[in-house]
Specification:
By secondary structure, this protein is of the alpha/beta class. The protein has 2 domains: 3-64, DNA polymerase, domain 1 (Orthogonal Bundle); 69-331, Alpha-Beta Barrel (TIM Barrel). It contains 13 helices and 15 strands. The strands form 3 sheets. An 11-stranded mixed β-sheet has the order 14-13-12-11-10-9-6-5-4-3-15. The protein has a two-stranded parallel sheet with strand order 1-2. A two-stranded antiparallel sheet has the order 7-8. One of its GO terms (biological process) is tRNA methylation. Belongs to the radical SAM superfamily. RlmN family.
């Protein structure tokens, strides 16, 4: 059975190439050809500088590099671009290219086909869970977007389809490759995992000391309310999650990012702010407010007046409060709307690849 070159971390690649006893330099050159320089075929890797003939011959015989197929690229009015990918392993996933001012991109990527958590305001959850993505499928989303980008990709957020901490091994390997100097060279703090509260995985993550950031989806600190929209509350109740967040903030000596989906008439009252204060007393946090986006119309975003009043209530936290812009709403690219859909915006043709140093 052949091994997939885009699935291997540097130590794993060294082990795979062990039969031909490559030098450390040769292993690193193969790794860089795949990830830093974006080779799309095994033959391109074999022709890379400083890849010895015996290594190239071994790769031709034992390695493979299938790719995701871009079904379409769809651009929103605000400049967000949603990519719809089809995998040879089955299923479709989406990733979003997010412009940051006029000098870089952040890419929001998927970690699963569908999602098992069934958060009530999330369109991905309506799909149900189909399967975990492999490491190469996760990285391919970034690679293909990078190939077509007119500015560098400087950040990655695991906030697309799926719960990344339910696909722990594959997503962490992907992050290691994304942050490796000979890989994508994206700094660890510029890679974020969003979790709805997989407490055992959060605790494992903290023990292992990864440099990437976590964002914790709380949405309500009143357990009864949280359960209505986040079924994970039943498996991992809020006090259990808060304890894990406290450990994360203590070990990392930084504020934990609390993602709070703002829903009109539901979780924006003074009692909701008091519940947050009580739950996170003594824990350094920052709150990221995200307007709900529900194409079905069951949940509505807050009015400007409602949001302002809630932000005023949140002052009792003594913590930074930010409002996250959820772009690409007209193409189904906003937070909670990724569902392998095709509507809105402008469908883009495949641009010629642009080399980004």
């Amino acid at each position: 059975m052949k091994f997939h070159l885009k699935t291997l971390s540097l130590p794993e690649l060294e082990a795979a190439l062990a039969p031909v006893q490559p030098s450390p330099v040769a292993v690193r050159k193969v790794f860089a050809a795949v990830f830093a320089h974006g080779a799309s075929t095994v033959e391109e890797v074999c022709r890379a500088p400083q890849v010895p003939k015996r290594v190239a011959d071994f790769l031709r015989e034992h390695a493979e590099m299938p790719r995701l197929t871009v079904v379409e690229r769809r651009k929103a009015e605000d400049g967000f671009v949603k990519y719809l990918f089809d995998s040879p392993l089955g299923g479709r996933v989406e990733a979003v290219r997010i412009p940051i001012f006029d000098h870089k991109y952040v890419v929001c990527i998927s970690s699963q086909v569908g999602c098992a958590l069934a958060c009530d305001f999330c369109m991905t959850g309506k799909l149900g869970f189909q399967r975990n993505l492999r490491t190469w499928e996760i990285l391919e989303q970034v690679m293909q977007i990078r190939e077509e980008a007119d500015r560098p990709v400087r950040g990655v957020v695991f906030m697309g389809m799926g719960e990344p901490l339910l696909n722990y091994t594959e997503t962490l390997r992907a992050a290691q490759i994304l942050s490796h100097p000979a890989g994508f060279a994206i700094s660890g703090p510029s890679i974020t995992f969003s979790t709805a509260g997989m407490v055992p995985a959060i605790r494992r993550y903290v023990r292992e000391g990864h440099p990437y950031r976590l964002a914790f989806s709380v949405t309500s600190a009143i357990p009864e309310k949280r359960l209505k929209v986040l079924p994970i509350e039943k498996a991992h109740p809020l006090p259990e999650l808060v304890d894990a967040i406290r450990e994360y903030a203590t070990v990392r000596r930084e504020r934990a990012m609390i993602a709070y989906v703002a829903i009109s008439g539901f979780n924006l009252g003074e009692e909701d702010a008091r519940a947050l204060k009580q739950a996170f007393e003594g824990i350094p946090i920052k709150v990221d407010l995200i307007d709900v986006t529900d194409p079905q119309g069951k949940y509505l975003p807050p009015s400007p007046e409602e949001l302002k009043a809630f932000r005023d209530h949140l002052q009792i936290l003594g913590a930074p409060i930010a409002r996250r812009y959820s772009g690409g709403k007209d193409i189904g690219a906003a937070c909670g709307t990724l569902a392998a859909s095709q509507y809105g915006g402008v469908v883009l043709p495949a641009p010629p690849p642009v080399s980004i140093s």
